[in-house]
Amino acid sequence: MSGANGANGVTEGVPEPILSCRGLDKWYSGVHALKSVSLDIAPGEALGLIGDNGAGKSTLIKILSGVHAPDAGEVLMDGRPVTIDTPRRAMDLGIETIYQYNSLVPDLSIARNLFIGREPLKHSIGRFGLMDVPRMRREAVEALAAVDLHLRSPDALLAELSGGQRQGVAIARAMHFKSKVLILDEPTNHISVKETEKVIGFVRGLREQGITGIFISHNMHHVFECCDRVVAMARGEIVMDRRVADTSIEDVHAFL
Amino acid sequence: MKRLLKVYLQKPELAGVLLLVALIVLFQARSDGVFLGAQNLRGVLGILPETALVAIGVTILMICGEFDLSVGSVFALMPMTMAVAMGSGLPFSLAMTLGFGLCALIGWVNGMVTVRFGIPSFITTLGMLFMARSLTVVISGGFPPLLDPEIPSAAFTAFIGPGDLVRMSFVWLAVVGVLASLLLSRTNIGNWIRATGGFREAAASMGIPVARVKIGCFVLCSMLAGFAGLIQVLRLGSPLPSIGEGLELQAVAAAVIGGTALAGGIGTVLGGILGAVLIRVIDNGLVLSRVDANWFKFAIGALTIFAVVANAWLLDRAKRIKVET
User: Which residues of A touch B203 (CB under 8 A)?
Assistant: First the structure.
């Protein structure tokens, strides 16, 4: 897993944040869901975001993944202000999100799911064209193998897979498109203990691949097992932000 | 081997294929061989494209997770618009463009209203069913206009092929069927349509413009319905304002018989065409078997329910076949 931190040419000191939120505000019909939230995330960092339901973590994630626009504040990527107005824009910037309800379509095959919205085309007119199906099948198998998921056929329907296997497909998709920032929204919900361990191991391994991870979970133990830093939210604000090494589960509980 | 069996059992149009074979055998026996005779086939294949083209559009729209009850009315409105426009002096090409433009507009309105206001397409298109039908009667002036002899009807209705077995409309059906099938199974838009109908939130979170995909399907559906109506009117030689009544439900039945899921995400163009073939076969077969023609609707209804039950059963069988994933 990770252990060689800082060794591979990463300069010591404070690196420039890959992603910064500055004073983000969001209202939902009268509810102040996010209150001037600012957060810097260092490249390669695995950040655990915790908080109760309604604490604002989903709202923050939705802004970063282009589902909602903030009412005030800005997002910077590599120091430059960016407008993330659509999920597509987020994906193009290298921000991939794996949602808790699973962003996969049950009635489509694994290969088709992997490439939704980004199908490789053989012949095209503008954005539309004939899909390169052999390439989709081949790359699907490769992408799955890269996250240590070995399925016999890329043509199997997603509905045939277990919860953990589906999570694996979603992760494989994010990895295949070389994301810089990977947001995992409650990825350990509804999957088995064994598969949960696999997801946690995967988050731990992100640093080695140079990917920044934002890991949202209800489960404090999961966060402490795989993250470098823990950020707690309550009532739309960040109430705690510490290195995992400098804090404990009891400490974090005291803030919630 | 097991996987292959599973793949075939999972094909949504399987029940339709089996039913079709069974019915052909039955009707062939009951009609003393008349059913598959060239003369009868000419009749069946001559009108099949009109139902099947509508069914293709409805099938694609249903796969995308929406519904269109206005196809029967659009079926009548398109040729009526064209006939009236030609009556007022417009050349055929312009009048036809006007007719198709109106179809596209109706599909766009259906889609926009459904998507933007978040109301069920069942309601939107039910409203459009009445509006488009009314419009048809109004512009006809209550009196079906004469068709201009300038229209190249032969391009749509002339008998062709060995023994003059099919009409030109059948060629159009083949072309549209192949293109629609390719669209759904081989293009990225097809992937978007299936994803949108299968799980809208997931599709949207992957950056697919789900609203535009749905509106596009509504437009396609309306235009195919209008095209089918045009073919029927050219075959009959007169734009009656009452044609296509009840067609919307036949088209839904065809799609469902062909394995399209009402909830969206599942289905094939071939299945929709197959459903339309089944409807036409039953219509014709009952007559040849000397059954009272009033049993037609009963048979379609029973077939629809039976096909869906059979499909669910086959899918369940497929699920039970254990293969390594």
Answer: 105, 116-117
User: What is the number of helices (H) and of strands (E) in chain B?
Assistant: 14, 2
Each residue's pLDDT tens digit, B61-113: 999 999 999 999 999 999 999 999 998 999 999 999 999 999 999 999 999 99
pLDDT tens-digit profile of A205-224? Answer: 888 888 999 999 888 888 89
Contacts 24+ apart (CB under 8 A), B27-35: B27/B281, B27/B284, B27/B285, B27/B288, B27/B289, B30/B285, B30/B288, B30/B289, B31/B285, B31/B288, B31/B289, B34/B288, B35/B284, B35/B285, B35/B288
Q: What is the pLDDT of residues B236-247, one digit of tens each?
A: 988 999 999 999
> Looking at chain A, which residue has its C-alpha nearest residue B204?
A87
Smallest CA–CA distance, residue B218 to chain A, in Å, is: 18
Buried b (16+ CB within 10 A) or exposed e, B235-250: beeebebebbeebbbb
* Facing residue for B203 by CB, picked from A105, A131, A156: A105
* Token pair of A8 as six digits: 């591979």
Number of helices (H), then strands (E), belonging to chain A: the values are 8, 12
What was the ipTM of the complex prediction?
0.84
Domains within chain A, CATH numbers bracketed: 16-94+179-256 (3.40.50.300), 102-170 (no CATH)
Per CB distance under 8 Å, which residues of B are interface residues toward A?
3, 7, 10, 182, 186-189, 191-192, 194-195, 198-199, 201-208, 261, 265-266, 323-325
pLDDT digits (tens, 9 = 90+) for B218-238: 999 999 999 999 999 999 988
